[in-house]
Amino acid sequence: MARSFEAWELGLENPLFIAGPCSVETPEQLEETVAGLVKQGVKIIRGGVWKPRTRPGSFEGVGTIALPWIQEVKKKYGVKFAIEVANPSHVKQALDAEVDILWIGARSTVNPFTVQEIADSLRGVDIPIFVKNPVNPDLALWIGALERLDQAGLKRIGAIHRGFSNFNDTTYRNSPMWQIPIELKTRFPELPLINDPSHICGKRDLLFEVSQMALDLDFDGLIIESHRDPDQAWSDAPQQVTPEALGEMLRKLKTRTINL
Ligand code: PEP
Ligand code: MN
């Protein structure tokens, strides 16, 4: 690749922590979860609005009606908010709602047409955007998506390692295949790279060890799913943790700079 990605200020802290529900469900669920996370020191919230589910018939996100709820918690709690976008209409709505950070999901990263459409819809816009690895272990496809955003003029680009789907692995929902993000980091040392232990693990009891591994490997941060009542979550229930459990876990992680 001709140019390397530039370093940019990740935000409020390094390592960067983003936490929040897999999906925004109701105004009450969002507010209670955010209030709990803020109490634990989290400053950047994630929450899916449009959900790319593997099989039809699953909950596919509440959609556009969640955007005013997000604006409300941003105002009330002073947090930044990150959401997934999968097409130009999502981008437009997210920008209109003054969402702070965008990400491209693993099922979108595999499709160059989709990524290009998203990139084109962001020309002239300065917003941080993260690209999850594609579901398949294809480093070139991941890099290609990052390049499409770079070529559209985005300056604050980052990568999220969420593991790779597989048929056989019974330990992880998505195999970490650490060598792939390590190779990405080796090729692009300035590109911020964060880890998503929630989608790698698929169950909450593995979150700590995967998070610690990522920090030991010098990842730049973590994005973790947290819900006020994880077992009742409308998507990804087994891997979500309460804000209190998340805070406890973050405080146990060994890193030079976390001060929650
Ligand atoms: C998510 O972040 O909730 C999500 C759908 O993740 P992924 O794109 O990694 O499957
Ligand atoms: Mn999820």
From TrEMBL:
From which domain of life does this come?
Bacteria
One record GO biological process: chorismate metabolic process
Quote the EC number. Answer: 5.4.99.5
Name a GO molecular-function annotation. Answer: transferase activity
| EC class | isomerase
Q: Which UniProt keywords apply?
A: Coiled coil, Transferase
The name of this protein is chorismate mutase
Originating organism:
Belliella buryatensis
Q: Which residues of the full protein are shown?
A: 1 to 260 of 361
